[in-house]
Amino acid sequence: MSQNFAACVEWELTGRCDLECVHCYVRRGRPRGRDLDRDEMASIASRLADLGCRSVTLSGGEPTLRRDWPRIADALSSRGVGVQLVSNGQRMGPAEARAASGAGVRLVLLSLDGLERTHDRIRRRRGSFGRVLAAAEALRGSDVPFGFLTTILEWNADELEGMEPLVSELGPALWQIWLAIPQSGGGPWPRRGRARSLARRI
To answer: What is the pLDDT of residue 193?
Structure first.
């Protein structure tokens, strides 16, 4: 491996997203620049493998908005690169889960930001919570390991304990919890004192 290149990389496949979550810098319908085309993506995948990259996390925006995401994942995994996929879970049905399995994705990380009412409020879409649970079931049915990512805001800070039984029942490979990074002066960011307390807990 090149001494100047990282072993683990996060690759934003697209700046597009189908949600408009309160804590995210990505805004639906307002992509940040042009998405690379298929040939450009294939070239990058090849270069990452050539540089000896051991792990690539495919993210966005929402990476599954690119129809060729399984091809990109396969281009990496077939070269021995470990591939993870970060998704909001809105499009991860049985067909997508099978595609992840066939492409050699070793872990899909789904965003889960609270119990139903709170998650839907944060994600600004009614029914988004149910689609995340359905995504977890689809991945489990395809034997693709999955995990949950929870971003702590003032709105969901008191729901972690309430989420534990649900998360345990679904059986993820991991549950990663982190504090939101404020994107503006206002918003549902954890207050300073609470943020310190939460940081000690997680």
So the answer is: 62
Q: Residue 166 to residues 8, 27, 34: CA-CA distances in angstroms? A: 30, 29, 39
| Structural contact between residues 97 and 137, judged by C-beta atoms closer than 8 angstroms | no
Quick one: tokens of 173?
A: 């490979």
Q: What is the mean pLDDT of residues 99-127?
A: 98
pTM over 0.85: yes
CATH 3.40.50.740 fits 8-201, yes or no: no
The CA–CA distances, whole Å, from 18 to 43, 48, 105, 169 equal 27, 28, 22, 28
Whether residue 69 contacts residue 95, with contact meaning beta carbons closer than 8 Å, is answered with: no
User: What is the C-alpha to C-alpha distance for residues 190 and 156, in angstroms, rounded to an integer?
Assistant: 9
pLDDT at 3: 58
* The pLDDT of residue 167: 97
HSE-up of residue 16 (Cα within 13 Å, Cβ side)? 11
Residue 90: DSSP 8-state: S
